[in-house]
Write a structure and sequence with these properties.
The structure is a homotetramer of 244-residue chains. Chain A has 244 residues and is of the alpha/beta class. Chain A is built from 8 helices and 7 strands; from the N terminus they run E-H-E-H-E-H-E-H-E-H-E-H-H-H-E.
């Protein structure tokens, strides 16, 4: 009997968000998709859509920064007896502020959500993937992963920490068959979050000025499909109009 | 009547080489492929294979560093009345040497082949693509594009010049609809060149220790297919075993 | 009456260590030096030497990762009624380990010591320096600030976070007159720590294969002395023999 | 009898320029200074000032891109029987233009002046310094060395080529005792060139918004004076007000 294949995405929120889009894409490719996030309502809505289209999906409420919850998520995957093919750390937390207005708690929380959670998630993903000597582990980065500019200093510090983590993991686990990827999303994603948080910016950017969700998902999938003799570790994704 | 689509690749040599593989791949996707290089014999052999498989191909002998020859190449494309979709600058010239053993001519030639030729090629490609506000322009880079190590200092200098050229072009032409890509091939390509030039290294690397030609071509194609709202400008490609 | 000038260094340990050497150098330049670290015995020994040479020094036991202790340190400086000229974050904590052997606590602690402490320290330093629109804030980085290699992934992640913090602060506070510097110490420092922790490596490197403490201190001082029209934000320091 | 020490700077033009300022600074430190450039009138004016202050200076008309002229320059130094301590490649040529308006000749010339000349100069400097296993070789870079932005694409390509050359040389010659340095001048220098070429910009930047010539020279000198156990290869220099 052929073992089913699975994917896991943590950081799944609104239906028009990157996590949900990746889940839909991977489910459409035939993977059993495990989706995790902090809101069961949001997860349920995403799951309903996937199931409606005939996909196989499991919801898990999990805070990426809490080790026991991340462990439970991966235990559920292991119990499903599937072969984990893709794991995406898609948590992205950003609170712009001038440096002196950035509290210790806020600074710590940004690091926990953007980097510590990735550490916890990567550990479980590697433990799951290692016996099969295969699997793709993707971390979603941002413009700030490469450059720290106020008022995004705290965010950039956390994203730079994530990037280095991804790079170290690639050096350690590529030779063991695990494809570690760091993406740099350089621009604003055309999803619910931007529409709600910065409606004017969202309007001003116009058609193709924001990253289309499905376009990002296609690149994630094609990077996952790369032959091990020619793996990409890092790539940027940017609307053609975006200055950089 | 629908206008046919075309691709152009300069730096096409041995059949088991990246240029030839890209040509085969693009022809199989239905593009009229223009291939250019310095040896008519090599070009003809590549063309025969493509035609044999039912592809449409045109050979042009051209030295990438000679402006008039590059112009002629693109005039042939314009005469074909096709829409140029992809242009790949695939010339790669490397002559390792200690610094004091690197002659002025050798230093200049590496720059001419890796960078000046790309400048000439890019100019013609942009002139062809600009009226349609579309097209993908890919430059093949190397490990040395990012780091200069002896005995590759002269090569690294030329490749760094190429990378900056590609980056400046991306900033200038992305907003005008032209997708400019720089790839970093970090490892040795599993082709005729390595097999002949470093047979022992070639043997030692073994299965998947060298970049498979077709694997690279697939990534080039998928980057070309990206939606303009989420374009990649730079990505690395590396065998999973390759230390970096 | 002229206000005295002061410097503060956190991360002062053994006498033959970078923190102690900077303290001696700054005291010799006539600054009142505040030195902080976790061991009163070590601080006292450093202070004795400085006082013996006629320098002015104040010891403060402080854990850089505890906000209240960092605050107390700067309150002591403010009470001294001196003008804070230089603040050096010199805490450097490194525990190499394969990724799966890196515990959550160890990962977190490396970040706290290399980055969170720098955040707390920078905040107080900026609050002290801002009214005068002058002062130099230096963060000591490492090879790993730029590249993450196992078994240093956790360390590299923390150091990359520190580097981004320093960069964001430079962009925010340079225009306000505060000189923010990030140094990349690329090699092993010729001090007590290396001598004790890796005695064989220490022996093998030989004369000038390790960074001389006083040589680093001289560069720190000359960077501090730069005219505001030509400030350095980042520089590397490396033994001439060190491969990179 | 003690052998005298010397310095050489190529790219010496107006009196209020970086080349001239370095020459004055090195002469004041007691070095016999060889200054080279294309205009004998300009060189003579710089030399007169140095001699007037009691310095030892030799003028040589030389085009940095012509190998024989660079050789003659260094033969003059060898004939002087001095020990060459510092060699600065200070040629900086920039002609902003949109890509399609950049001619092949202009593109080539920018590379020749910013990179090929540095190659020729470095070769002679290394040949002179190698027997003594000492000396400092400095290349003046720019913002564009790290980032290519239109209309500076051609300039950035040339400066990136120079940076890689400097990096390769550092890796090859540092272990042989030659200190190779690449500086990134990130801003406009407060000299005659800017005053004449962009008078409005020059006015607008105001006090300390432009890099002071003497401030740059001081950093060059202090980098030259570094102990070999703690050498800097690359550093940026930027007015405190300059956004980056």
């Amino acid at each position: 009997m052929v073992q089913p294949c699975s994917a896991v995405i943590i950081g799944v929120g609104p239906e028009r968000g990157l996590g949900a889009t990746l889940a839909n894409h991977f489910a459409a490719e035939g993977l059993h998709v495990f989706i995790a996030g902090r809101s069961i309502e949001k997860l349920q809505r995403v799951a309903d859509t996937i199931q409606h289209k005939g996909g196989l999906v499991t919801c898990m409420v999990a805070d990426a920064t809490i080790e026991s919850e991340v462990k439970q998520l991966f235990e559920a995957i292991r119990c499903s007896n599937s072969v984990l093919q893709i794991a995406v750390y898609n948590v992205d937390s950003n609170t712009p502020a001038p440096f002196l207005k950035t509290g210790t708690e806020a600074f710590t929380q940004l690091w926990e959500q953007n980097c510590l959670g990735a550490f916890l998630f990567a550990k479980q993903a590697i433990v799951s993937m290692q016996p099969n000597r295969q699997g793709t582990l993707i971390f979603t980065g941002a413009t700030a992963s490469l450059r720290a500019k106020p008022p995004f200093t705290a965010f950039a510090s956390a994203k730079a920490a994530l990037r280095a983590l991804a790079q170290g993991l690639a050096r350690e686990y590529s030779p063991k068959g695990i494809h570690v990827v760091h993406t740099i999303i350089d621009g604003v994603i055309n999803g619910d979050r931007a529409a709600q948080q910065f409606p004017e910016y969202y309007q001003a950017k116009g058609q193709d000025g924001l990253l289309k969700l499905e376009a990002i998902a296609e690149t994630y999938w094609s990077i996952h499909c790369q032959h091990p003799s020619a793996w990409t570790h890092e790539l940027d994704l940017r609307p053609y109009k975006e200055p950089f």
